[in-house]
Known about the structure:
The complex is a heterodimer. By secondary structure, chain A is an all-alpha fold.
Amino acid sequence: MDERKATGTMAGPVEIAALLERIQDGDREAFMTIIRLYQQKVFVMAYSILRNREDALDAVQETFLRLYQKAGLYKTGNSFQGWLLQMAKNISIDSYRKHQMKRREWETSKPLEEIPVAVEDRASDSAASDLRSAFARSVEKLAKRQKMVFVMRHYNELQFNEISEAMRISVGTAKSLHFKAVQNLRKWLTPDLGMQR
Amino acid sequence: MNKCKLNRDDWAAFLSGDLEEERRKAMAEHLEKCPDCRAEADAMRRVLEKTEAVKAEIREAVASVNWEALPATIADRAFAASRKPERALPAARSLGWLSALRMKPALAGLTAGLVVGAAAMYFALKAPGPRPGPGTEYFASGEFLDKAELEMARRNTLDYLEKSQYVLLDVFESAGEGATAPTAFSSAQARDLLSRKKYLNAQLERFQMAKAKAICDQIEMLFLELSQISGELPAAELRKIRGFVEERQLLLKINLVRKELERGI
């Protein structure tokens, strides 16, 4: 993955603009190059929101299909990665909502005893994953923008300037949202972490 | 933490890891001296350590994907959609149609009407009358078409009357309790029924439908009044409508006409 990241940063804005132009002309190779460069970053973004491999892969496909249709709408001055990740973020959030609605329907149609109590049921049920799911639940609980910044910073491992591009907020706002997120998590998780205060 | 000289900005910068050298030094010095802030910094660090588990999960997921094959798969999908515009276009258009339907309840209603009409036609063709035997050419006599039309009118009227009854009962119930809450709902329904009546009028012109027409016209007047009510219906107004319905024994008459229609005219 590190190797890919390196190639990702190697593609400068000029190369990206050229690739996008070729995509608009229907150049399959150019399209595949862009996918190769960014597929993992898009996947991580989708996965951190959806927390499910198949759903995340669907979101990746959806994101690049939309890129293929909208390649002409990219404005050269802006960050391409920020633009693409924003698209991925929106698609993932839409998909998350859809799945959540389905899940709710499914849950309300089931007797109470059969509904899983824990939100994160995918991890194995070892003691270690208890804390992990408590953590995942707390992240879920964060206000929307705090959660997005936290997820992008720590799961996607993006820099604050990249986050600010993808979320269309200032770097300062991104940092302060991040701080608030950590503060909240720290507050909620104190009993779980066995911290004395 | 609050009484210390460290402020929010310091903490935010500390967390984001881009504290300037000078402030970083100052902060480190302060943390040495201040147990409260040190505990705070430790707690925050421990929270961030928890992300490692999730990161590991993400890395696992990333490792499980065949990244070599995915670009081609996506490209295939993208180009399949664009290479066959004559197939892709109608698909896009039909989707557009769907959303147009969703936007226009009236259009949706009309479609529903068509479907109901078609279904009625099916039953009409199925139920009465002599059928052309096998082997004979398809032939629809004027008499047959007439019957089919009548059948359709009969069914539409039945449907209309049944719905009207519900609305009237609704109004009745609210009048009985003295409540005025459901009137907004009933007036919307009344408007809906009024527009149905417009379609029904032509069918009611048939002489076999004279009885049904009389009652439908009476109900229509009621609905016209109901539909003009916006917001809350004064209790007196409600009582008046109720009186009107009771005086003419409308519900009873509706039932009689319905029975007659059901039996066939």
